[in-house]
Amino acid sequence: MVKFESLSYIYAKDMPYATTAIEDIDLEIAKGKITAIIGKTGSGKSTLIQHLNALLLPTKGKLVIEDHVIEADKKATDLKALRKKVGLVFQFSEYQLFEETILKDVAFGPKNFGLSEEEAIKKAKEALKLVGLDETYYTRSPLDVSGGQKRRAAIAGILAIEPEIIVLDEPTAGLDPRGSKEMIELFYRLNKDLHKTIILVTHDNEIVYNYADEVVLLDKGHIIEKKEAKAFFEDTALLDELDILRPQIIALKEALNKKGASIGDDVHSIDDLAKYWRQHG
After folding, report:
1. pLDDT in tens, 166-210
2. What DSSP state is assigned to residue 210?
3. Percentage above 90 pLDDT, the chain
4. Residue 261 half-sphere exposure, CB side, CA atoms within 13 Å?
5. Strand order in the sheet with 214-219
6. What is the DSSP letter of 245?
7. Cα–Cα distance between 280 and 227 in angstroms, integer?
8. pTM of the model
9. What whole-number distance in Å separates Cα of residue 197 and Cα of residue 207?
10. Is residue 7 assigned to a domain?
11. Is residue 144 part of a domain?
């Protein structure tokens, strides 16, 4: 369980150019779910998630992650254990690769958390397999593979420390459509098969609609809405009010309903729509 309680963060606090990035955030994120955090650029999404492994510490309020409590004006403790529990994958995470081979890079995290060389290598190989990089990549330089493969290697470095919570900041940024689909399906499998809690920052509403369990909308540092993802996008009046771009299937259903169809909220995909059409003609 992750819980923000009246949490605020001010950049350059007590300086003339101080800026409040997020303010009075009250939010509970369910364990074992995929939660998407959306909002316009500058809404506070990245600031919010950087609190999850104490890269930023609250100016006000507190954050509870299982048995870890981070509170404003109190020294944060046991950060190494927290950062093992919460793996943060930055946007363009491949820029974090630095070792001479991919295997060494992925093994760095487990070694840093106290595993022996042999154990770290074992964890690294397991993580590389999870992201679809086989043994032919072990001795290759991170500089000698494609952008998508670099992204996978960087993510493997997070998975190798076996976090319970994986936090993703725009994980599909810069990838082509096929690479984006493969990347998000990787995290979907980690959630469904290994029961990892996934917290996802994205501008891609197709990803949110098709993969997320819940959606949290931020605007100007405040939570505007928190809702089950499918219900959020089916509420077209709310989408209009908040100026949220519709996923393609929602836009298609709206267009067809305006032509006289009666397609309900239980139709969530093209396959569902095809089934509806076969039944109703």
Report:
1. 999 988 888 888 888 888 999 999 999 999 999 999 999 999 999
2. H
3. 65
4. 16
5. 86-89, 165-169, 197-201, 34-38, 214-219, 222-228
6. P
7. 30
8. 0.91
9. 16
10. no
11. no
Give how many domains the chain has, as a whole number: 1
Domain assignment present for residue 255? The answer is yes
Residue 254: domain span: 247-281
DSSP assignment of 62-90: EEEETTEEEETTS----HHHHHHHEEEE-
Name the pairing type of β-strands 197-201 and 165-169: parallel
CB proximity list for 81: less than 8 A, separation 6 or greater:
68
Q: Coil, strand, or helix at residue 263?
A: coil
* Token pair belonging to 277: 């059409």
Low-confidence ranges of the chain (pLDDT < 50): none
Domain assignment present for 62: no
Classify the C-alpha dihedral 153-158-160-162 as positive or negative: negative
Q: For 197, phi and psi rounded to 5 degrees?
A: -80, 125
Contact predicate 141/98, CB 8 Å: no
Give the whole-angstrom CA distance, residue 265 versus residue 135: 45
- Rounded-to-integer distance, Cα 266 and Cα 20, Å: 40
Handedness of CA 22, 26, 31, 36 (dihedral sign): negative
If one counts every other C-beta atom within 10 angstroms of the C-beta of residue 123, the result is 22
Q: How far apart are CA 169 and CA 200, in angstroms?
A: 6
Say which residue the tokens 């974090």 belong to.
96
Q: Which two tokens stand for residue 47?
A: 């600031």
Q: Which residue has the tokens 């500058």?
A: 42
| pLDDT tens, residue by residue, 262-281 | 887 888 888 888 887 787 75
